[in-house]
Amino acid sequence: MDDDQVAIATAIGIAVRHARKEAGLTMREVALKSGLSQPFLSQTENGRAVPSVMNLHRLAQSLGTTAHALLAQGERTPSSLVRAHEGRKFELAHDSSIRFCSTGSHTMEPNEITAGPHSEAGEHTEHAGEEFIHVLEGTVDVEVGLDERHRLNVGDTLLYAATIPHRWFNRTDRIARFLIVSSPPSF
């Protein structure tokens, strides 16, 4: 790991350990709730492993928090400025990434997704609150529940209850970029 990766791994480990202790859970209990192995959780807490974004999301849910809160590591601030090409960025899946568009802790969570050609979010997710998608570039397909499918093009928006299982796809040969805003924060 380079210096930035070590710093991220250490910060995530500290945040996970703190959240686990605050929740009064053992590592074994968190492993059972999250579906992640106890050795992996130990490596994460000790800064020797960095969970994928989806595993961090599962881990945060099992701890009663959000991945964004674990990564933010900041106190609530009255404003947040993230310039273009700044913000923490993490790989979601092969050829797809998420960029956090705010810092600190807030009541909503804006994130920019860059989805490579023929990429997808993976499995359906569900969480408290609502989610808003706005397409900046390309085309994005979104599934909400079992029966609802939407094709979104540049400028299109979609708002839905995040308690319904949902996921996105880029089924085209071009990159897609879109904003996902969750309230309350879910990552």
H/E element order: HHHHHEEEEEEEEEE
The largest sheet is:
6 strands, antiparallel
What average pLDDT do the residues reach?
Answer: 87
Stretches with pLDDT under 50, minimum 5 residues: none
Radius of gyration: 16 Å
Here the CATH topology of the largest domain equals Jelly Rolls
Terminal Cα separation, in Å?
Answer: 24 Å
Approximate strand percentage: 25-35%
Helix/strand/pairing class, anyone? Answer: alpha+beta
Strand tally is: 10
Name of the CATH superfamily of the largest domain? Jelly Rolls
CATH architecture tag of the largest domain? Sandwich
CATH class of the largest domain: Mainly Beta
What sort of overall outline do the alpha carbons produce when their principal axes are compared?
Answer: globular
Helix percent reads 25-40%
Q: How large is the count of helical segments?
A: 5
Q: Kindly give the count of domains.
A: 2
The neighbouring-strand order within the major sheet is 1-2-3-10-5-8
Fold and architecture overview:
Keywords: DNA-binding. Residues 16-70 form the HTH cro/C1-type domain. It comes from Rhodococcus globerulus. The chain has 187 residues and is an alpha+beta fold. It folds into 2 domains: 3-72, 434 Repressor (Amino-terminal Domain) (Orthogonal Bundle), CATH 1.10.260; 89-183, Jelly Rolls. It has 5 helices and 10 strands. A 6-stranded antiparallel β-sheet has the order 1-2-3-10-5-8, with no helix packed on it. It has a 4-stranded antiparallel β-sheet with strand order 4-9-6-7, with no helix packed on it. Strand 1 and strand 2 (96-100) form a beta hairpin. The two termini are 24 Å apart.
